[in-house]
Specification:
Elements: E1 5-8, H1 17-22, E2 24-27, H2 36-42, E3 48-51, H3 59-64, E4 71-74, H4 84-89, E5 94-95, H5 102-117, H6 120-128, E6 149-153, H7 157-167, E7 172-176, H8 183-189, E8 191-193, H9 196-202, E9 205-208, H10 222-227, E10 233-236, H11 245-254, E11 259-262, E12 282-284, H12 293-311
Parallel strand pairs: 1-2, 1-3, 3-4, 4-5, 6-7, 6-9, 7-8, 9-10, 10-11, 11-12
Helix pairs in contact: 5-7
Length: 325
């Protein structure tokens, strides 16, 4: 009996021996995502797909899958690139990798917050550019972090991990979320649940950790930036489309806010001609929130475990659409 065939849309930071024992593996070796037409061709002959956020897994592609196609496994927590209703209609389970990247993403968020506050990237360019002549009292000043007010938008695992870090800096911590968390947890973390508008008005730093949904698309636009302090700094390690990029550019160039640091953009990757790239008061990193060695290896292994379970007809350890069962 021949082994099932799987297609992996990028090289993974882990070994594939376990998967190789039960399946014939093809890996897309290029740095850039496989073109959509390639994916459309592959799904007709494979039994399982291991994909990334950059891959478009839409209704057309899912409906083009052959009768032997059994499982989609995504190496990511989010899955807004996958048409879940279409997969469910075909009885195809979709796997993802929740929980594992909480601390890595929270660590990067905190790194971006501190770098933006203390203007680390600007200072590095300043020193490398030969502009450092002497110590100056007014050179590259930024706001205090210790004792400042932090607003957390979205209070799931990552938002709560941010609150734990902020507590060590004696910050006043507001959060807003679709659902208020347990009040005992609020006491432990030292946080206060509040309305979105109040959070924007009173926070020195605003960090975004909400999923991308219809109601959070461009959640941060002109109106929201106008509500914020002119000294405020915004951090986004969630999804790029939560911030309207034109509104962000206006806010940063007009002085509505002092700065921003983003690990995600809209669109992604950011176009090379984007005016945002010209701003000194904006830090941009290339979606590296989960990019610790240990975290990426765990994510890859979870994605492989989901894939193997689906190929065997077993329940996925981490399934997005359990209705298929």
């Amino acid at each position: 009996m021949s082994k099932p065939k799987v297609f992996i849309t990028r090289r993974l930071p882990t070994q594939l021996e376990q998967l190789g024992h039960i399946a014939t593996i093809e890996v897309w070796e290029e740095r850039q995502p496989a073109p959509y037409k390639v994916l459309l061709k592959k799904v007709k002959t494979i039994d399982g797909l291991l994909c990334l956020l950059a891959d478009q897994i839409d209704q057309q592609l899912i409906e083009a899958a052959g009768t032997s196609f059994k499982v989609i496994s995504q190496m990511a927590v989010g899955y807004d690139n996958i048409d879940i209703p279409a997969a469910t209609a075909r009885k195809i389970p979709v796997g993802h990798t929740p929980g594992v990247l909480t601390d890595a993403t929270a660590d990067l968020t905190w790194a971006l917050l501190m770098a933006a506050a203390r203007r680390v990237v600007e200072a590095d360019r300043f020193a490398r550019g030969g502009q450092w002549r002497t110590w100056e009292p007014n050179l590259l000043l930024g706001p205090n972090i210790t004792g400042a007010t932090l607003g957390i938008v979205g209070f799931g695992r990552i938002g709560q991990a941010i609150a734990r870090r902020a507590k060590g800096f004696d910050m006043k911590i507001f959060y807003t979320s679709r659902h208020r968390c347990d009040q005992e947890l609020e006491k432990v973390l030292g946080v206060e649940f509040t309305a979105f508008e109040r959070l924007l008005q009173e926070s020195d730093f605003v960090t975004i950790h909400t999923p991308l949904l219809d109601e959070t698309y461009h959640l941060f636009g002109d109106r929201q930036f106008e509500l914020m302090k002119q000294s405020a700094i915004v951090i986004n390690t969630a999804r790029g489309a939560i911030i309207d990029p034109e509104a962000l550019y206006t806010a940063l160039t007009s002085g509505q806010i002092a700065g921003a640091a983003i690990d995600v953009t809209d669109p992604e990757p950011i176009p090379t001609d984007s005016p945002l790239l010209s701003l000194d008061n904006l830090i941009i990193t290339p979606h590296i929130g989960s990019a610790s060695l240990q975290t990426r290896e765990k994510m890859a292994n979870m994605a492989i475990a989901n894939l193997i379970a689906g190929l065997k007809g077993e329940r996925l350890p981490h399934c997005v659409n359990p209705k298929v069962y």
